[in-house]
Every structure is written in structure tokens, then in C-alpha cells.
């Protein structure tokens, strides 16, 4: 996609060659990444690879066919020639010769095994959850029974206390009445 500012800069420089314009982001990107052939082998293509003591079929640096349909080197971009060292070329050779189908099979098997283990854990967790729910329901019903018994006991205590208070009230009323009658008799005797 071309930036509209690119064409404006070109027109300005044609009309006024002394005016310097700032390069756009696209121009900077194109300058910083020159079109250079990648030395990383791509899957399914013929890639030049200079073998250094490897067991290649021709052994003279000819083209080798990449056997895997897909490899992790797709992600990598071009590597400048100055930074390539024997270790990197050895690693890329190892990646090129690696059996990616076998790795994918191992990965699939491992994921299936983890899926089975996860399903087993899910079933076990569901069973434990059922036990916990039964325990919590039992605890709730026991707490409700205890609360009902406590409430009944408190009601009986309150009713007994009310009866006792009522009896004491009657007793005190009778005592007061007895004192009043005794006082009245005493007053009558003093008048005589």
C-alpha cells in the first residue's frame, strides 16, 4: 500500500530540488530492510545450503530438498551474512533434517493424554463436589434442627420465667394483703 505522502514528497523534490523532505515511514522501512535472499531453508522449496562436514547427499553445497511440509524457520526473517556463524548453520541444518511429522505426532499424543487426565480430574472433581454438597446439606439440616431445639428451649425458659414471675407477683400481692389486714386489725384493737 502506497502512502499518499510519498507521491507528494516526490513532486516537491521534482519542483524544488533544494527542499529536503523527511522520509516517510514506508521509505524508512524499505531502506532499513533491503531485499536480500534468505539463507534459511523454507519448507517445500529447494533452498541453497552449503554443507560443512554434514552428511548431505551431494556434499558439495548443492540444492537440497526440504522434506518437511512446515518448519519453525518460517517465522524467522532473513539473517545478514556477517552474523551467520557455524553454530547457527549447524542449528539450521538440525532443524532442516528434523522429522516434524514425528514431533507433531508426539505433540498430538501428549495433548490426547493430557485431555484424558483432565477429563479424569473433571469427573473426580464432580464426584467430590457431589459429596461436598451432600455434606453441606446435612450440616445445614443439622444446624436447622439445633436452632429449632434451641428456640423451643428458649421458649420454654421464657414461659417458665413468666409463670414464676406471675406466681411471685401473686405471692407478693397476698403478702401485701395480709400485712394490710394485720395492720387494719391492729388499728381496730388500738381504737378499742
Automatic annotation (TrEMBL):
Biased composition (Low complexity): 51-62
Annotated segments matching region Disordered: 1-74
Composition skew (Polar residues), residue ranges: 1-11, 24-36
Name the record gives this protein: Uncharacterized protein
Amino acid at each position: 500500500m502506497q502512502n499518499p505522502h510519498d507521491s507528494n514528497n516526490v513532486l516537491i523534490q521534482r519542483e524544488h530540488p533544494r527542499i529536503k523532505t523527511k522520509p516517510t515511514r514506508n521509505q524508512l522501512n524499505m531502506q532499513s530492510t533491503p531485499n536480500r535472499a534468505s539463507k534459511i531453508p523454507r519448507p517445500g522449496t529447494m533452498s541453497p545450503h552449503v554443507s560443512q562436514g554434514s552428511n548431505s547427499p551431494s556434499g558439495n553445497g548443492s540444492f537440497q530438498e526440504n522434506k518437511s511440509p512446515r518448519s519453525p524457520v518460517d517465522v524467522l526473517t532473513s539473517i545478514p551474512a556477517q552474523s551467520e556463524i557455524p553454530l547457527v548453520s549447524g542449528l539450521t541444518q538440525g532443524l532442516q533434517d528434523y522429522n516434524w511429522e514425528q514431533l507433531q505426532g508426539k505433540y498430538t499424543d501428549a495433548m490426547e493424554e493430557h485431555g484424558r487426565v483432565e477429563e479424569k480430574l473433571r469427573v473426580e472433581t464432580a464426584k467430590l463436589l457431589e459429596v461436598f454438597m451432600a455434606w453441606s446439606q446435612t450440616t445445614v439440616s443439622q444446624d436447622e434442627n439445633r436452632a429449632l431445639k434451641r428456640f423451643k428451649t428458649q421458649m420454654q425458659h421464657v414461659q417458665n420465667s413468666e409463670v414464676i414471675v406471675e406466681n411471685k407477683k401473686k405471692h407478693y400481692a397476698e403478702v401485701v394483703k395480709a400485712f394490710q389486714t394485720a395492720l387494719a386489725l391492729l388499728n381496730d384493737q388500738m381504737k378499742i
